[in-house]
Amino acid sequence: MSRIKVLPVLLLIGLLSLLIPLGVAMGHSGDGAVGIMDTGDGLSNMATITFEDAPTLASTQAYEGWFVNVGPDGPVSPPVSTGILVPDANGNINQTFIQPGVNAGQNLLAEFNTFIISIEPVPDTDPAPSADKPYSHTIPGAGLAHIRHVLHSSQGNPVYTQGFYAGQDVPKGVAVGLREQTATALTNANLSAGSDTIGGIQTHACHVVNILEGSGGANFDGSCGNPGDGFGALNYAVDMKHADFAAGAASSDPGIVAHGKQAVDSAIQSKAWSEDARDQALLAKGSSDVDAARLFIRNAQTLLERALMGADANGNGTVERILGEGGAWQAYQAAQDMGTFTLTAAVVEEEEPEPPKLPAAGDSNVPTLALAALALGALLLMGGGVMFRVSRRRA
Hints:
This protein is an alpha+beta fold. It folds into three domains: 1-17 and 372-395, no CATH class; 28-138, Immunoglobulin-like (Sandwich), CATH 2.60.40; 174-338, no CATH class. Helices cover 44% and strands 18% of the residues. The chain has eleven helices and twelve strands. It has helices at residues 3-16, 108-111, 141-151, 174-193, 198-213, 233-238, 241-249, 254-286, 290-309, 328-338, 365-394, and strands at 23-27, 31-39, 42-52, 61-68, 70-71, 74-75, 80-85, 93-98, 114-121, 135-138, 341-345, 347-351. The protein has an eight-stranded antiparallel beta sheet with strand order 7-4-9-10-11-2-3-8. The chain has a two-stranded antiparallel ribbon with strand order 1-12. A two-stranded antiparallel sheet has the order 5-6. Strand 2 and strand 3 (42-52) form a beta hairpin. Helix 4 packs antiparallel against helix 10, helix 5 (198-213) packs parallel to helix 9 (290-309) and helix 8 runs antiparallel to helix 10 (328-338). The longest helix is centred in the last third of the chain and has 33 residues, at 254-286. The protein starts with a helix and ends with a helix.
C-alpha cells in the first residue's frame, strides 16, 4: 500500500481517538389535540380527540385517554377514561367522548384541567392510568378560571333553566348567555315580522328590546312582558372581556391568546349589530302603521341574524372570527377553542451503546489515559501530515 493511500486511514484513526460518546435527543413522534364542543343537548360536554402519526405499539399495548383534574399536589379527583384510542392504518386517531350515565351533560372544562394519553398493557386490570404517559397538557390555571367564567358559570348571571345544570343554582357562562339571548331576540323579531296586526308587531318588538337590554336597560318596558332572562344580550357581550382576562392571565399560551382575541372581537361585533337591531325594534314598537312597523322589524331581523351567526363582510366566502364579521356563535366557539388541550410529545434522552468501560472514577489512571488518548490522536494526525508531504515530494 502506498503512503498516500495510508493517509485517509491515519486521519480516521486520529479523529476516532478524539471522539467521546454523545447522548442523542430522541422523543415520541406525533402530536394531537383535544377540542371541546357541544352535543345537541349539552354545552361543552363533548371532546373530540385527534392525533396524527401515533407511534405503533406492540400487540400487548394500547393508548388510552384520560381527563384529569390536577391540583398542586396531584390529581384532586379520580381520572375519567375516554376509552382506548385506536389509531387507523396511518397512525391517526379521531374519536369523540361524552361522559356516560348521569354525567353525560357535564361541562368538561368545568370539571377537568388536564388531558393525558397513557400507554396501557393489554389486557389491563388496573382502572388507573399507567406510569407511561407520553402525551399530556394542562391548561394554565389562571387562564382556565376566566375560560370557565365564559363557558360555564360567572357569578351574578341568571342561573341555568335547562340542560345539565338546570335546578342546580348555577349561574350561566357569559358566552352561553350571549348566544342564548341573541337567539331569543331573533325568535321574537321573527314573531313580530310575522304578525298581521300592529299590536302583534309592537308587542314582539318590545320583547326584542327587553331581551337585548335586560331589565336594567334604559328602554326596558315591563308592560309588554319579557321572554329574556333579564340580564340582556348586550350586557353579556360586554362581559366577554373575561376572554381577554384569560388571555392576559395565560399570556404564554398562544392558543388562549389567539382565540381569546377572536372571542372578544366577535362579541364586540355582535353587540354593535344588536344595538342597531334594538334601535330598529324601538321604531317598530313606536310606529302605528303596519307597513312601516314591519319594515323596521325586518331590519331588526337582518341585524339579529348577523348578531347571532356573523356575516361575511369581506366577501371571501367565510364568516370569520374577526371584528366586522363574527357574531355570538363565533364568540362562543372561539371561547371553546381557548380550552383546547394541545398534546405534544415528551422528549426523553437515549444514549448510544455504552463504550468499553474505563477505570472507575477516582482511579489515578483516568486522567493519564485521557491525556494519552488526546496525545495519540494528535500524533497520528501530525504523522499523517508528514507522510503526505513526503509522498508528494517523491511523486
